[in-house]
Specification:
- By secondary structure, the chain is mainly alpha-helical.
- Helix content is about 60%, strand content about 5%.
- The chain contains 26 helices and seven strands.
- The strands form two sheets. The protein has a five-stranded parallel β-sheet with strand order 2-1-3-4-6, with helices on both faces. Strands 5-7 form a two-stranded antiparallel sheet.
- The longest helix is centred in the N-terminal third of the chain and has 34 residues.
Length: about 675
């Protein structure tokens, strides 16, 4: 029986190269070469479990305190410098090039949490998955895996120390890690359907992957190699590589991490075992490729490559776009250059330095914590003050954003007895929030109380389908509160998106085809469901002796002004459809909804319809900008702050007309 070879295995760096290239190719989505390339992260987990165990084994003679201090000192020097650099640069670039939009709070919270290894927790609380289109706009999304690893490091060294001390005296310590891994696998299997975000992002459903690498080290990393295993090693490496490719090609996001991660984890374990059990014997073909200098160099760069590849892709999406072949060719060169610079100028000097700060654990912890807190505070300031760095037109928040800005212009107030004690209640989806500037002006001018209930994605009387079932509980709570607070004659304004969205469709075939496609989604079944839900809600509000106001469908567009109005993003392929639509096509698109509205008006005397479209589109061509070049819309369907101010006089006049016609009821 021969002894295992030296600690460093160049082919392990080769495995890291495969892992990071798989992830990058998946995220670049070039020709859909590796639809399951995201499983490269699972390879990293297994490799990390093995390598960390090997590192801890080499320090098995230290006391527990020195053992922990040395481990965390080395981890901090390894992980934090490059991570802090990428996060800080990303916050600055985000403020410069990304307009604030509906995901901005989540994005900022993800980035801030990433400073402390908690971004995976923030993402697990979100409603969108790792594979949703909105995830492509978050430059900090990829830090979730670092959060999982950092949380693993909190508990694993102590577990491993117990095994180091008692492995020769107790069989129980050999079972501890496998039992925890099995429990984690069970959690993963349960959560993949019951709580998929938790299964994907959180440590309990991922612990087994890192533990698998550690268990492999316990089994083969400290033992000798038999001639039989030595001969079998190349086959193990080849078989593991095959499993890895199966995962990269066929892993299903909806069945991840269980059971599909098991394929990649098994493949990674076989590849590591094949490398280790080969010892110092002549490597096979696969191992020789993994040990090529070019491959191992990519493996050594893998951490920096992983850190940089995703934010670079996100910022390209926000500016010039990632769709063109030229950008896709430049992208890997840019990522590689940043990663190499990070590795040689940040990672390596800090890890190998011999200053007191790098050698003494307490100084490393103190300086690391200080640097992390300072840079996190700077990032928070940037997140709260993006306009200070922004290069975008959207830095003019008064014009672009439907915030509750106090009006900068002089305004006159109404003094009308019909307005005394009136209340306006507003319900709906994100389009309710997009009316905030208008609602603030209405409150100030008319002297009325405005109460807003808004929940993104929760349309009310959408006219294009049933009101979303997942929003039923929130909708009912809002209605009950309105019924408790409202007085007869008050107005309930129902604001929602009421046309199928046009962004992301096949605009190349012309607007008529685009509208035909959208109209095809408005089936008789969906329109009937819309009428049923509308009847239910309108009947309830009318019985409460409340006036009901609905906004008729507003214009919408094929591209978003907030992404297509600056010199650095105007040529982005997502902007190619343009920021105009023929009014004729929009009228055709909203004809079914207008028909439903007319039918509802005939049945409910308390229902009033306010139509913003003629004010937003006075001519034959509807534009996201007015005649003076000011944006009427923020994105493809939400109003801008300026658009709110254009509509406010009409909206105020509509409210005044309603209240003059319905005197307050005294009880």
């Amino acid at each position: 029986m021969s002894q295992l070879a030296s600690t460093y295995k160049p082919a392990i760096d080769g495995l890291r190269a495969i892992a990071v290239i798989s992830v990058i190719v998946f995220h670049l989505d070039m020709f859909s070469l590796l639809p399951g390339g995201f499983t490269g992260v699972d390879m990293f987990f297994v490799i990390s479990g093995y390598v960390i165990s090997q590192s801890l084994w080499e320090r098995r003679d230290l006391t527990f305190g020195r053992y922990l201090a040395d481990f965390y000192r080395r981890r901090l020097l390894r992980i934090m410098p490059a991570l802090l650099t990428v996060l800080s640069v990303s916050f600055v670039l985000g403020a410069m090039f990304m307009p604030q939009f509906w995901l901005s709070e989540l994005i900022d919270n993800t980035g801030l949490a990433a400073f402390f290894g908690l971004s995976n927790v923030v993402l697990a609380w979100n409603t969108d998955t790792y594979f949703s289109p909105s995830a492509e706009l978050n430059p900090y999304l990829h830090t979730w895996s670092l959060g999982v690893e950092e949380q693993f490091y909190v508990i694993f060294p102590a577990l491993f120390f117990v095994w180091l001390r008692y492995r020769q005296r107790s069989a129980v310590v050999w079972a501890l890690l496998p039992l925890m891994a099995m429990a984690s696998l069970i959690v993963s299997a349960f959560e993949v359907d019951a709580a998929p975000l938790s299964a994907f992002y959180l440590l309990p459903g991922r612990f087994w992957e890192l533990a698998a690498g550690a268990i492999l080290f316990q089994v083969v990393g400290i033992r000798g190699v038999t001639p039989g295993l030595n001969r079998l090693a190349p086959a193990m490496l080849g078989g593991g590589l095959g499993l890895m490719f199966v995962g990269c090609l066929y892993a299903a996001p909806k069945q991840f991490p269980f059971p599909w991660a098991m394929v990649t984890v098994a493949g990674s374990l076989l590849m590591i075992a094949g490398i280790v059990l080969r010892g110092d014997c002549a490597p096979g073909v696969v191992q020789r490729v993994l040990q090529l200098p070019q491959v191992t160099y990519i493996g050594r760069l893998s951490y920096s490559l992983y850190l940089w590849h995703w934010p670079v892709a996100v910022f390209l999406r926000w500016t010039v776009g990632l769709e063109s072949l030229a950008v896709q060719l430049v992208y890997p060169v840019l990522v590689f250059a940043l990663a190499a610079t990070s590795y040689h100028c940040i990672e390596t000097p800090i890890r190998s330095g011999r200053s007191a700060m790098q050698r003494k654990a307490w100084l490393t912890f103190a300086s690391g914590l200080g640097a992390t807190c300072l840079m996190a505070l700077c990032a928070q300031w940037v997140a709260l003050n993006p306009a200070a760095l922004s290069l975008s037109q959207t830095r003019d928040t008064y014009t672009w954003y439907a915030y509750k800005h106090y009006p900068q212009e002089d305004f006159a107030t109404f003094d009308d007895p019909a307005l005394a004690g009136r209340q306006l209640f507003v319900m709906g989806d994100s389009h309710t929030a997009a009316y905030r500037t208008l609602l603030k002006l209405v409150s100030l001018k008319l002297g009325i109380t405005v109460v807003e209930y808004e929940k993104g994605g929760c349309s009310v009387v959408s006219l294009i389908g049933p009101d979303p079932a997942p929003c039923a509980a929130a909708r009912e709570a809002q209605l009950q509160e309105i019924e408790a607070r409202a007085k007869p004659g008050d107005v309930v304004f129902l604001a929602s998106l009421r046309m199928p969205e046009l962004a992301g469709r096949r605009w190349q075939e012309g607007e008529a085809v685009l509208v035909d496609e959208a109209l095809g989604e408005l089936t008789a079944e969906r329109l009937n469901a819309a009428r049923i839900d509308a009847d239910r809600l309108l009947s309830r509000l009318q019985k409460a002796r409340l006036n009901i106001l609905i906004d008729a469908p507003k214009p919408l567009f094929k591209a978003a002004p907030n992404r297509c109005s600056d010199s650095f993003n105007r040529m982005n392929p997502v902007c190619a459809p343009g920021l105009t639509m023929a009014r004729e096509q929009l009228e055709r698109l909203r004809a079914p909804q207008m028909g439903v509205l007319l039918a509802l008006q005939s049945r409910y005397p308390a229902l009033h319809v306010w139509d913003p479209l003629p004010l937003l589109c006075p001519g034959r061509i509807c534009s996201a900008y007015d005649a003076n070049g000011k944006p009427l819309f923020f994105d493809s369907n939400h109003l801008s702050g300026h658009g709110n101010r254009v509509l406010e006089p009409s909206f105020s006049a509509t409210l005044l007309k309603i209240w003059r016609a319905t005197p307050p009821v005294t009880e």
